[in-house]
């Protein structure tokens, strides 16, 4: 077999902890992973980047010796000198935990909900290391301390549901470290977490790496995370390793069109530049195309790329690319364009005006006649306006109330208090109780396109429904309009008869957007519309949304709910930052992203991992520690004071004043703007 | 060395198919049997035979099911009478063939009625939730607390013993059971965003129930129906065994078992053949339901 061996980096001249050699794995006819080679030296962090379907998780599981229904059709995995596939079940059991261990994406699934977490850690130590109860307990407490959880004694007695996502992930990391493995496999360890929690977990992993000689295999789709954590990076596309190199080298000077595409698709919080999606979709891996795996989506592809085996070519020390035209990458691919700043919409008429909106969720008693559980205060007086043709982003972490806000405006729920005015009319009622025009004017795009489309309806029926309902279109007129919209979201006529299951995630979301836009709405509420999609698809969907807004007849406004600050910077005209059911800062996008800011906004921004943001690693003073306060009993005064890195003292327990640094901007903080500026500019 | 926590956790995770298989439809399709199998041919042939027995028994049956012929009373199976004859010399084969209609029409009609009522109730309860759900399902629980056969007997005896009332009895007995199944599925489907999307559009409850929710419940309902037909066959046979509903000389299968049991020691064929018929129909209906489920299940599971 002609395996294009990747030149070992200098550090790996010592025996590597992990060597994957020409690994190929099939699932039935699907050749999910083909000829992947990589090596990780002791103490090295290797990032494996890929989108869904790239085979990155398959590789991660294969390293642990788990093949599931897969079959190894070539190559081997050498772990600490031993061939993983030759070990047998017993050998693997001995190796798992002590030589290699894994941290999963969802910590809630990785822990047994009915056993105290301390016991879950200790059990593994007792069984594997043969320690007695007391020694295992001592080691457990030590491990919990190691992952920076306060009060280890108390933590050991908790059940998983009593801990937050970040705390659970630390417990899982503690479990993984229990037997001091040589290799830690991290499969998207922070993907389900809020950005501030993610930052803290990444700090922890970086600390562990610095303190021990453990090698890391870090699987992620997030280039920013990988840039921050890893020494070397491999880029996996459709089961093929397409580029590999030192992190800064590869991310600053990518030499594969796919890597370059991924970087261009990343929304950036630091600079406003145009995001560019990667057109096309993954090839069918049941019939792997001849030649380059990326040819169909590549702008550089020539006739040579369409046949033969494309070798991994060395392009520099430790940097190699599986591209025949890697020399052209830097020159022929268009450079990133700066985003075109949009004209201010300050003069436009307000379309949506929300005043003092509140919503409580009363805790129903667990049993009849018993005491009710405490009331969850999801929204605590939110005021906001959206102008014609404007995009207002609501950004916040889980539990901030941003989704509740969107649902109230959409009429999925009724507010407890306050007013929602739309074009001057009160619409604080359920969608069904609103007038036909209001129903037509306010549309919603859901977070998860996979569940937002009825699997039993065709694309034509789905997009046609609002047209039938609001405009009474039938027959030819209906079909023509459906086709028009379908074309507007770049899906052709052939999609009309398709069922949702025949669409990719991005295509599904386009259908959802088409449905929302079918009857020319005036306000579209987008609830995390791209968080379930790959970043190459996300960029395309966001572009589509902007184009539709530009071209819309009635100056469609967006209420854009998201947790992703990069997306906010790229798409929003104004931004509202929410924390615990309140808006803490509101203003033009440019004002939100420059100092001085509300300390919470500052902390959010400091937490975002991004390529080429080395300074953020030093912003550890802006990490948010401690749990989010309970929404049943929010802190008095400034809701953020319990976690605020810039907290002043008892003053913060009183209501903070509204301050403004620019036209149309305000933030709620006790620290005067001038002092905030001084504090934030000194770093 | 024994397992420790970490691998155990990993194993639990690993059971979930990795991302790669999720993306591609080929992997699943090849393992799942969506095409025709030999067993399908047998199944279809059996179902066709049963349908023919219900529709045109006179064309298939070699003899009259009711005409007495004392000369050949209680003959064991032979070439002339493949299933043997009963105490009046009637051909068992002909009686089994003619017995299909009174047995199955009642079973199928009863099952359709029960599953129909149950589906509507379950959809309503699962969609509305809250108090509506509570009231409907407690009523269903009350119905379900009666033992099947006792409730059915009670209804037929109260309403009068005729086929229509037997159908009603079977329908009422199956109603709460189907309602529970439909409600469980409806609750699950009602969680999905496309129901909320319909809400935001301002759709009527009826549209959401029957256009959005029902199609998602339908594949389970169809399977449920095939099972209910099986139970219905046995329930209607039990009722006629008890002497309720269908009356002699109509050759219902349950009735044949009842009549034959007094001779079971020296003419076991009189009981065995109607039992075989009941079993074949029951098994065929279950298998057909299982295949339907496989065919109707959406290939790709949305997350």
Automatic annotation (TrEMBL), chain A:
Organism: Chelatococcus asaccharovorans
Annotated ABC transporter domain residues: 18-263, 352-605
Domain of life according to the entry: Bacteria
Cellular component, GO, one term: plasma membrane
This protein's UniProt keywords: ATP-binding, Cell membrane, Membrane, Nucleotide-binding, Transport
Keyword Cell division: no
A GO term for molecular function: ATP binding
Membrane topology: Peripheral membrane protein
Coiled-coil intervals: none
Keyword Nucleotide-binding (UniProt): yes
InterPro entries listed in its UniProt record: AAA+_ATPase, ABC_Ni/Peptide_Import, ABC_transporter-like_ATP-bd, ABC_transporter-like_CS, Oligopep_ABC_C, P-loop_NTPase
Family: Belongs to the ABC transporter superfamily.
Major location category of this protein: membrane
Protein name per the record: Peptide/nickel transport system ATP-binding protein
Compartmental location: Cell inner membrane
One example of a Gene Ontology biological process annotation: transmembrane transport
Residue ranges crossing the lipid bilayer per the database entry: none
From TrEMBL, chain B:
Bilayer topology annotation: Multi-pass membrane protein
One Pfam family, short name: BPD_transp_1
One BP term from GO: transmembrane transport
Compartment(s) of residence: Cell membrane
GO cellular component: plasma membrane
Family, similarity comment: Belongs to the binding-protein-dependent transport system permease family.
Protein name: Peptide/nickel transport system permease protein
């Amino acid at each position: 077999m002609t395996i294009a061996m990747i030149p070992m980096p200098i550090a790996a001249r010592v025996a590597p902890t992990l060597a994957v050699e020409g690994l190929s794995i099939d699932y039935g006819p699907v050749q999910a992973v083909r000829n992947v080679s990589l090596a990780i030296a002791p103490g090295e962090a290797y990032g494996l980047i890929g989108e869904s379907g790239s085979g990155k998780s398959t590789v991660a599981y294969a390293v642990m010796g788990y093949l599931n229904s897969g079959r190894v059709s070539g190559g081997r995995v050498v772990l600490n000198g031993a061939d993983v596939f030759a070990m047998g079940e017993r050998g693997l059991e001995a190796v798992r935990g002590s030589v290699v261990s894994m941290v999963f994406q969802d910590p809630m699934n990785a822990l047994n909900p009915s056993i105290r977490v301390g016991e879950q850690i200790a059990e593994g130590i007792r069984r594997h290391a043969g320690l007695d109860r007391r020694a295992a307990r001592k080691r457990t407490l030590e491990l919990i301390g190691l992952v920076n959880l306060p009060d280890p004694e108390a933590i050991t007695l908790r059940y998983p549901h009593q801990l937050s996502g970040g705390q659970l992930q630390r417990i899982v990391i503690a479990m993984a470290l229990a037997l001091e493995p040589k290799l830690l496999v991290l499969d998207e360890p922070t993907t389900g977490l809020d950005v501030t929690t993610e930052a803290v977990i990444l700090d922890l992993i970086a600390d562990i790496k610095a303190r021990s000689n453990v090698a890391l295999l870090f699987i992620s789709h997030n280039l920013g995370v990988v840039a921050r954590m890893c020494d070397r990076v491999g880029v996996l596309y459709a089961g093929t390793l397409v580029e590999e190199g030192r992190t800064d080298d590869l991310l600053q000077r990518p030499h594969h069109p796919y890597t370059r595409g991924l970087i261009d698709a990343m929304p950036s919080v630091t600079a406003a530049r145009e995001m560019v999606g990667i057109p096309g979709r993954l090839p069918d891996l049941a019939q792997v195309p001849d030649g380059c795996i990326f040819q169909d989506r590549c702008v550089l592809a020539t006739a040579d790329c369409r046949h033969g085996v494309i070798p991994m070519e060395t392009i520099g020390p430790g940097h190699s690319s599986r591209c025949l035209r890697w020399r052209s990458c830097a020159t022929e691919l268009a450079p990133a364009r700066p985003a075109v700043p949009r004209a201010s919409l300050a003069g436009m008429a307000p379309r949506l005006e929300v005043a003092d909106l509140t919503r409580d969720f009363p805790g129903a008693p667990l049993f009849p006649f018993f005491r009710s559980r405490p009331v969850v205060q999801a929204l605590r007086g939110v005021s906001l306006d959206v102008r014609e043709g404007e995009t207002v982003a609501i950004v916040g972490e889980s539990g901030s109330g941003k989704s509740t806000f969107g649902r109230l405006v959409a009429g999925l729920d009724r507010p407890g208090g306050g007013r929602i005015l739309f074009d001057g009319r009160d619409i604080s009622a359920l969608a069904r109780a609103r007038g036909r025009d209001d129903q037509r004017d306010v549309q919603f795009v859901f977070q998860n396109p996979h569940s937002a489309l009825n699997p039993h309806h065709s694309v034509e029926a789905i997009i046609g429904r609002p047209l039938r309902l609001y405009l009474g279109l039938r027959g030819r007129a209906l079909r023509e309009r459906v086709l028009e919209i379908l074309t507007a979201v770049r899906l052709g006529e052939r999609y009309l008869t398709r069922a949702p299951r025949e669409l990719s995630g991005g295509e599904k979301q386009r259908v959802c957007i088409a449905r929302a836009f079918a009857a020319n709405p005036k306000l579209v509420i987008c609830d995390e519309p791209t968080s379930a999609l790959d970043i190459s698809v996300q960029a395309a969907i966001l572009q589509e949304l902007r184009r539709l807004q530009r071209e819309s007849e009635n100056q469609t406004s967006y209420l854009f709910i998201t947790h992703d600050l990069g997306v906010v910077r790229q798409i929003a005209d104004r931004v509202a930052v929410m924390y615990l059911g309140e808006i803490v800062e509101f203003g033009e996008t440019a004002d939100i992203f420059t100092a001085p800011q509300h300390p919470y906004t500052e902390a959010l921004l400091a937490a975002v991992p991004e390529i080429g943001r080395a300074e953020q690693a030093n912003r550890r003073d802006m990490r948010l520690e401690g749990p989010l306060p309970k929404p049943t009993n929010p802190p008095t005064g400034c809701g953020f004071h319990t976690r605020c890195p810039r907290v002043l003292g008892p003053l913060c327990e009183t209501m903070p004043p509204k301050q403004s640094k620019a036209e149309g901007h305000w933030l709620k903080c006790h620290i005067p703007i001038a002092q905030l500026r001084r504090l934030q500019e000194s770093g | 060395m024994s397992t420790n926590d970490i691998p155990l956790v990993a194993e639990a995770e690993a059971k979930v198919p990795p991302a790669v298989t999720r993306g591609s439809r080929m992997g699943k399709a090849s393992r799942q049997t969506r095409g025709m199998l030999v067993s399908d041919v047998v199944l279809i042939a059996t179902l066709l035979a049963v349908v023919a027995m219900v529709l045109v028994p006179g064309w298939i049956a070699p003899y009259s099911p009711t005409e007495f012929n004392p000369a050949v009373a209680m003959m064991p199976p032979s070439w002339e009478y493949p299933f043997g004859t009963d105490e009046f010399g009637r051909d068992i084969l002909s009686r089994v063939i003619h017995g299909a209609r009174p047995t199955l029409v009642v079973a199928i009609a009863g099952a359709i009625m029960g599953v129909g009522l149950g589906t509507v109730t379950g959809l309503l309860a699962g969609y509305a939730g809250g108090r509506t759900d509570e009231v409907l399902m407690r009523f269903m629980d009350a119905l379900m607390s009666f033992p099947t056969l006792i409730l059915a007997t009670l209804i037929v005896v109260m309403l009068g013993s005729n086929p229509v009332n037997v159908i009603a009895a079977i329908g009422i007995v199956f109603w709460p059971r189907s309602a529970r199944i439909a409600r469980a599925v409806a609750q699950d489907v009602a969680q999905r965003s496309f129901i909320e999307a319909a809400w935001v559009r301002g759709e009527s409850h009826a549209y959401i129930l029957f256009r959005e929710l029902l199609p998602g419940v339908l594949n389970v309902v169809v399977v449920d129906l095939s099972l209910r037909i099986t139970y219905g066959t046995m329930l209607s046979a039990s009722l006629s065994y008890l002497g309720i509903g269908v009356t002699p000389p109509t050759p219902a299968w349950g009735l044949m078992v009842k009549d034959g049991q007094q001779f079971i020691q020296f003419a076991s064929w009189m009981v065995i053949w109607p039992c075989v018929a009941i079993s074949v129909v029951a098994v065929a209906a279950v298998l057909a339901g299982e295949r339907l489920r496989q065919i109707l299940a959406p290939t790709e599971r949305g997350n």
